[in-house]
UniProtKB/TrEMBL annotation:
Domain AAA+ ATPase: from-to ranges: 109-398
Entry keyword set: ATP-binding, Chaperone, Nucleotide-binding
Protein name as it appears in the record: ATP-dependent protease ATPase subunit
InterPro entries reported in the protein's UniProt record: AAA+_ATPase, ATP-dep_Clp_protease_ClpX, ATPase_AAA_core, Clp_ATPase_C, HslU, P-loop_NTPase
Domain of life of the organism encoding this protein: Eukaryota
Keyword Chaperone carried by entry: yes
Source organism per UniProt: Sphagnum troendelagicum
């Protein structure tokens, strides 16, 4: 096709549930006018996002049997079998509920869980991992947050709003993963067209249509990254929205940017900031801008709300801190108990309004946890007890458990330290005795100072590797072996000085 100019067709659809593709298409035109036609023949439907959020790491939703879930949790969390089994069954019950005919399905409420166990023994970690395995929206709150001075009577509905925010992020991640290839292709086409346009002869030349092989050549160069250093100018409206692109250099005089710039202004009255950058720099920016069209749709909000309603997990920590022991009257004060009443509606099931729409909390899974040192679960409001029918006890961590936590989880603390040092080209080696000693020290400080469970391992380990970590950049290529002696040197003294270890470890 030979003609003297190009016409921009901006494909855009205003239909609900349809994404504005915003892609620019070149077409021949008898004149070099800047007429713009809206071509609604091509529309990109938003990818349908399934309302069932379960996209587990492995094997699909059906494969998430309780045994499989426990096995997956075992990769990250040591021991606490009872709690793992309880959450695994809760997850499976959701799967079962989804398979019950509508109507009956609504009658089945989740069996919420009360985890009882000392601090730092893995309660939060189990719930958080469960959410990850199930690809479920998750939010953690401290019950005491609602009793803090200045926060008293804080809106507990915020928990559900936060859950929906999390569901929105998950939906966006899903959509992003699903459309990334399509978006990259659109950006590739866009840049290739620009480069081809630049190579075309000046206005008035009869032979204006770039030969296909030329386009393919440009595409090949683009894919190889050979165009990455080529300068373009992008007009970026207020930093992040749709850009227009101009190829500079080449001297064709073809005012691509000018055209796009005007089109942009026709469709969107936005302020543009012109920035010069290379194609390599522009690529990720254009991808983000293109992606935004998929990520800001009503469909995402609808799907996110459904996801939060059917698969959301709310973890309420320190629930015991809002409970008063009825015999001794120790524990929370009367006003804190009011927080139990505040929490009841969302746990029992109610409608919470969020900026994305109303959320029904009937089927959200609530996992509450607490140490219950100075009160008992039976001290909670009867209605709350009734809504937390599954009780599981988690054990305090022994020295042996601490050793296993250091070594067994997939990305255990020892491995993490080694990976960090490897980035500085340092080989960090721990002897088995050293790891046993670390666990022993942590257990001892937990016993003598304050039992903070596995969290103590972080502080002890950091102290042991502190010197290596500090000097690592100057000692690339070295190997450090942490043996029992080194652990003793680093923390041994502190062990015998309780006052000091109280602050340091
Ligand atoms: N059994 C365990 N296995 C592996 N890691 C653990 C275990 N218990 C605790 N940890 C680690 O210790 C840290 C604290 O654990 P977690 O947040 O689950 O404590 P918690 O029981 O919820 O305590 P709290 O009630 O004070 O929040 C986390 O980094 C977690 O990975």
């Amino acid at each position: 096709m030979a003609t003297s100019a190009y016409r921009l067709l901006f494909r855009q659809s205003m239909k609900p549930g349809v994404v504005r593709t915003g892609s620019w298409r070149w077409a021949s035109s008898p004149s070099f006018s800047t007429s713009v036609q809206r071509d609604t023949t091509t529309e990109t439907e938003l990818p349908v996002v399934t309302t069932s959020a379960l996209e587990p790491d492995e094997g699909g939703e059906d494969a998430l049997t309780p045994a499989k879930v426990v096995e997956m949790l075992d990769r990250y969390i040591v021991g606490q079998r009872e709690a793992k089994r309880a959450v695994a069954v809760a997850l499976r019950n959701r799967w079962r509920r989804h398979r019950i005919p509508e109507g009956l399905r609504e009658e089945i409420v989740p069996k919420n869980i009360l985890m009882i166990g000392p601090t730092g023994c893995g309660k939060t970690e189990i719930a958080r991992r469960l959410a990850k395995i199930a690809y479920a929206p998750f939010v953690k709150v401290e019950a005491t947050k609602f009793t803090e001075v200045g926060f008293h009577g804080r809106d507990v509905d915020q928990i559900i709003r936060d859950l929906v925010d999390n569901a929105i992020s998950l939906q966006r991640q899903k959509v992003r993963a699903r459309v990334v290839k399509e978006v990259e292709k659109a950006v590739e086409n866009r840049i290739v067209n620009m480069v081809v346009g630049q190579q075309r002869p000046a206005e008035g030349d009869a032979n204006v249509e770039a030969p296909p092989e030329n386009k393919e050549e440009v595409r090949k160069l683009y894919c190889e990254g050979a165009l990455d250093n080529r300068k373009i100018q992008m007009d970026v409206p207020d930093g992040r929205s749709r850009p227009s692109v101009e190829i500079i250099g080449g001297g064709s005089g073809f005012a691509v940017n000018e055209l796009i710039h005007r089109m942009e202004k026709v469709f969107k009255a936005q302020k543009f900031e012109r920035q010069e950058m290379t194609i390599g720099e522009a690529k990720p920016l254009l991808i983000e801008i293109e992606m935004e069209k998929y990520l800001n749709s009503d469909q995402i909000s609808k799907d996110a709300i459904q996801l939060a309603e059917s698969d959301g997990i709310v973890f309420i920590d320190e629930i015991d801190k809002i409970v008063t022991n009825h015999e001794t009257r120790h524990g929370a004060d009367a006003s804190s108990e009011g927080v139990q009443r505040d929490l009841l509606p969302i746990i029992e099931g109610s409608i919470v309004s969020t900026k994305y729409g109303n959320v029904n909390t009937d089927h959200i899974l609530f996992i509450c946890s607490g140490a219950f040192h100075s009160c008992k679960p039976s001290d909670m409001l009867a209605e709350l007890q009734g809504r937390l029918p599954i009780r599981v006890e988690l054990k305090g961590l022994t020295r042996e458990d601490l050793y296993r936590i250091l070594t067994e989880p997939e990305t255990n603390m020892i491995k993490q330290q080694q990976l960090l040092m490897k980035t500085e080209d340092i080989d960090l080696v721990f002897t088995s005795e050293a790891i046993h000693e670390l666990a022993a020290v942590a257990a001892e400080v937990n016993r003598s100072v304050d039992n903070i469970g596995a969290r103590r391992l972080h502080t002890v380990l950091e102290r042991v590797v502190e010197d290596i970590s500090f000097h690592a950049p100057e000692r690339a290529g070295d190997t450090y072996t942490v043996d029992k002696e080194r652990v003793r040197q680093s923390v041994g003294d502190l062990l015998h000085k309780t006052d000091l270890s109280r602050f340091v470890l």
